[in-house]
Design brief:
- The protein is α+β, with helices and mostly antiparallel strands and 248 residues long.
- It contains 5 helices and 14 strands.
- The protein has 2 domains: 95 residues, wza like domain (wza like fold, 2-Layer Sandwich), CATH 3.30.1950.10; 83 residues, Outer membrane lipoprotein wza domain like (Outer membrane lipoprotein wza fold like, Roll).
- A 5-stranded mixed sheet has the order 9-8-14-11-12, with helices on one face. Strands 4-1-7 form a 3-stranded antiparallel sheet.
- The protein is elongated and about 105 Å long.
Length: 248
């Protein structure tokens, strides 16, 4: 009878229409080592900003100080600023900047202040974005593997949707998120059947989070299958023997 049970499941099954539920605001994503950042500086006089945009995909600053346009395909390969193992990036003109642990807003403000203090541009506008914001989906999802996130923020339900939804074998109360916290890995367990998932610290995912959906059942080995079939045959034999004895 259990083998014929339905595999259907419901998300957020304790939620009522029209009722308000608490939701985690989520921590703003912070820059980590290994991140690649797209940073663009603009101002009223575009020519003043060109030296600060040598990796934006449009211009290159040569060693003799000349500014030339770059090939777009080649520029895409070199685009962005990689955060090194020390948490720093090397930014044109103003030098090394410690970016690890900062939000994008804090990083852009730091660059803006350095440009202004150096009197390079009076009123610069600095924008930044992640170029390699990824999460990894494993376990009982339809399409496991890495997912590129364009918006720099994604919640757990959106990530499951991007992975093609859960498989019928998924254990909905054991959706694990592995996250690096203070240079160590921590595991958070989520139950997507409950509205309390929205209060989870991992409801909003961060770059390089690993989402693992546990299976309801482990894969059976040959020994397990043999034991299963053997017990089924013994059960069937006992039932037939009882029926035979009853009618006799």
């Amino acid at each position: 009878m259990s083998s014929c049970a339905s595999h259907n499941f419901l998300y957020l099954r304790d939620m009522d229409p029209g009722k308000q539920y608490l939701s985690s605001n989520g921590q703003e994503v912070k820059i980590q080592t290994g991140d690649r950042l797209d940073i663009v500086v603009t101002c009223k006089d575009p020519e003043l900003a060109i030296p600060f945009n040598t990796r934006s995909g449009s211009y290159r600053l040569s060693s003799d100080g000349n500014v030339t346009s770059t090939d777009l395909a080649a520029a895409q390969q070199q685009r962005g600023y990689r955060v090194d193992e020390k948490g720093d990036i090397e930014f044109p003109i103003i030098g090394s900047i410690h970016a690890q642990g900062l939000t994008l807003l804090q990083a852009t403000d730091t660059i803006k202040q350095k440009i202004m203090r150096g009197k390079y541009i009076q009123e610069p506008i600095v924008t930044a974005d992640f170029l390699n914001f990824k999460i990894y989906m494993l376990g009982e999802v339809s399409r496991p593997g890495p997912i590129n996130v364009d918006e720099n923020h994604v919640n757990l339900l959106e990530a499951i949707s991007m992975a093609g939804d859960l498989s019928p074998k998924a254990k909905t109360n054991r959706v694990l998120v592995l996250r690096t916290v203070n240079n160590s890995r921590q595991v958070f367990v989520n139950d997507i059947r409950s509205s309390k998932i929205m209060e989870s610290p991992t409801f909003y995912l961060q770059q390089n989070d690993i989402v693992y959906v546990e299976p309801k059942y482990r894969n059976n080995s040959k020994e397990d299958k043999g034991f299963k079939y053997g017990t089924s045959l013994l059960s069937a034999a006992s039932v037939l023997s009882w029926i035979f004895y009853y009618f006799k």
